[in-house]
Amino acid sequence: MTRILVVEDDPNLGQILSEYLQLKGFVTTLCTDGEKGFEKFKTEKYDFCILDVMMPKKDGFTLAKEIREIDKTIPVIFLTAKSMKEDTIEGLKIGADDYLTKPFSMEELILRVQAILRRSGAKSDQSNTINRFELGGLTFHYDRSLLERPSGDVKLTSRENELLKMLCDHMNQTMERNAALNAIWKDDSYFNARSMDVYIAKLRKYLKEEEQVHILTVHGQGFKLVKVE
Amino acid sequence: MTRILVVEDDPNLGQILSEYLQLKGFVTTLCTDGEKGFEKFKTEKYDFCILDVMMPKKDGFTLAKEIREIDKTIPVIFLTAKSMKEDTIEGLKIGADDYLTKPFSMEELILRVQAILRRSGAKSDQSNTINRFELGGLTFHYDRSLLERPSGDVKLTSRENELLKMLCDHMNQTMERNAALNAIWKDDSYFNARSMDVYIAKLRKYLKEEEQVHILTVHGQGFKLVKVE
DNA sequence: AACGGTTTTTAACCAGTTTTAACACCCCTA
DNA sequence: TAGGGGTGTTAAAACTGGTTAAAAACCGTT
């Protein structure tokens, strides 16, 4: 799971950006100015920042500088309206990982984010991710692809494992179909969608014995892993 | 020391490039087509790639794709005659770190190389590979091709040794099939893939007595050496 | 060059995983 | 309440990997 902090003062663009990233399987937080962005960054854990350069109250460069004081290695992409030389230089000094000049295509943004994540290696995906989930009387170990149950453990296949992980990451929230498909199947085609339905059925079978936990469908949207305390 | 692989089909440009980089303190290898470039990459260790996009036999994108299967994090700069949009997208998909459109100044190239190296951190010094891995109650000595076990040590053959090393280097992450095949077998053909499966089975047999450690398969992707603490 | 032991590849068959397909059912809306 | 799209379920098909053993390649020694 990759959590992205999006700070963009244009609410429309910010919304579109945020939703598109979620569709592609990322978890995002949107802030509309630099100060709010910094508050968010201090209270929650993020793996990636996408920052507008020109913003009221606190500009993107200043924000990046402050963020980098807390986390020196977090990847940062700047969004900038102009492609001026001094902007580029300034950004590089702070340690920007990439630049996008408005207007840009969503596809290009996604590709750049993925390129940077690939380069920065698995260290972020690794240490940040939760590996153990308590599901009532069951325990799910993502790293071991194992679901521990009183009635006997289940070795999960990789698809089962990824899907259950994603449901757990969205515990008590709706996990959108397209987000899961893009994150796990890398493509939200019709057949992959049906494939996912098959896996949901399998997971339901595994979880059946634990009454406190079940996967419910949100018609037309996705699935929700519900845990009753 | 930073070793740069330069693949450029124009011998004049390639020569100038190569010499200029050497002047700046880099160690370079020049290849004049994609196939030769890939051969070089497989047999020697590099820290950086500068690839021409349009080349005979094997273009820069294809080459980069193959290189990235072996080393996912190695920085790549493309040299391209045109600055077309689809080229950019295609390059980003593969994970380009930067672009230079011909003609470019040598100075600009150097600056971009340095910027990327600064960004990707001081991990260029990989000449010191780890030789000893603790696998629960077992100890794997790569340099001695030896797996120490309570029940008796195992002398590993070179394929066993390389494969176990690669799994250990990717501890708790997925080691991709193609990456291993290209790195160890130097070729990801069908039969080599099957050969690898045979070796995975052998390693599993050696590791069987240690419950904390096992190789699990990530269907369609590769294998993951998991260590439970 | 021929031998014997070791390592690696090839082959065949089997087992497990994932996708596709088909059909039934449900939910929403016109 | 009829219709269409979304979902549940099951089973077969397609694909990928596990296992074993024999064949081939390799290597040092004679």
Please characterize this protein's 3D structure.
- Two copies of one chain form a homodimer.
- By secondary structure, chain A is of the alpha/beta class.
- Chain A has two domains: 3-120, 3-Layer(aba) Sandwich (Rossmann fold); 132-227, Orthogonal Bundle (Arc Repressor Mutant, subunit A), CATH 1.10.10.
- Helices cover 45% and strands 23% of the residues of chain A.
- Chain A has nine helices and twelve strands.
- Chain A has helices spanning 11-23, 34-43, 60-70, 85-94, 106-119, 123-128, 158-169, 177-185, 190-207, and strands at residues 3-7, 27-31, 48-52, 76-80, 98-101, 132-135, 138-141, 146-148, 154-155, 174-176, 213-218, 222-227.
- In chain A, the strands form three sheets. Chain A has a five-stranded parallel beta sheet, with helices on both faces. Chain A has a four-stranded antiparallel beta sheet with strand order 6-7-8-9, covered by helices on one side. A three-stranded antiparallel beta sheet of chain A has the order 10-12-11.
- In chain A, strand 1 (3-7), helix 1 (11-23) and strand 2 (27-31) form a beta-alpha-beta unit.
- Chain A is elongated, with a radius of gyration of 19 Å.
- The A-B interface holds A 73, 92, 95, 97, 107-108, 111-112, 114-115, 118-122, 126, 143-145, 157-159 and B 68, 72-73, 75, 88-89, 92-93, 95-97, 115, 118-121, 172-173, 216-221, 226, 228.
- The first copy, chain A, binds a DNA duplex (30 and 30 nucleotides) through helix 7 and helix 9.
